Amino acid sequence: xxxxxxxxxxxxxxxxxxxxxxxxxxxxxxxxxxxxxxxxxxxxxxxxxxxxxxxxxxxxxxxxxxxxxxxxxxxxxxxxxxxxxxxxxxxxxxxxxxxxxxxxxxxxxxxxxxxxxxxxxxxxxxxxxxxxxxxxxxxxxxxxxxxxxxxxxxxxxxxxxxxxxxxxxxxxxxxxxxxxxxxxxxxxxxxxxxxxxxxxxxxxxxxxxxxxxxxxxxxxxxxxxxxxxxxxxxxxxxxxxxxxxxxxxxxxxxxxxxxxxxxxx
Length: 265
Known about the structure:
Layout: H1 3-22, H2 26-37, H3 42-66, H4 72-96, E1 102-104, E2 107-109, H5 111-131, H6 148-165, H7 170-181, H8 185-205, H9 215-235, H10 241-264
Antiparallel strand pairs: 1-2
Helix pairs in contact: 1-2, 1-3, 1-9, 2-3, 3-8, 3-9, 4-6, 4-8, 5-10, 6-7, 7-8
Membrane topology: Multi-pass membrane protein
Protein name: Probable membrane transporter protein
InterPro entries: TM_pro_TauE-like, TSUP/Inactive_protease-like
């Protein structure tokens, strides 16, 4: 095993650590790791990301459910429409995208490159959300009554995002749970982990019909990520996640910039 591969497997622990601390953000690391460290094709990398993040988030959500930190009613309102859109996107939309996506003279934009650029843009938006120190304190649900209709609509949108680029969308889910469901930030993070698990698993199910998977690689990587989420949940009891997320946000911004420059140059 090369030093580069050892670095990749070690990064799996960081993936779980981030999910445990922030309630999301794991896919922001997994996709670049799979593409640039293990040289896995882009679309397959998003499939692997869905499995790793889904499994890791599910294990973490069990701990949150046991601790009664998850709002199951809000989870259902958000997740039910979300997993419909993520399954349909993964099962039909992504395979139906033309390849190349765009061509003008000698310039050709392949489907893989288009998804990679879209993923990099999402990373930049996620980094901005993490770097900002302010958090939504109250929104439409300031009266304590969740806005289930708006939650369902946001769930549909996040499902399309998850299905297209293999990202769980935690950086979008957590603020929406605060604003539209009136959840305290700690419960929003815990509920987000369960929603990400559901979304990711459903998206992965949409892929297994037409994708050959390397389980000898995928299972050890996922196991290390699960170790990471337990470490993250442990430190979350002592360290303010906001401070760590801000630093992680700058790191994500650097990685996104690197991805764009590497593809352009």
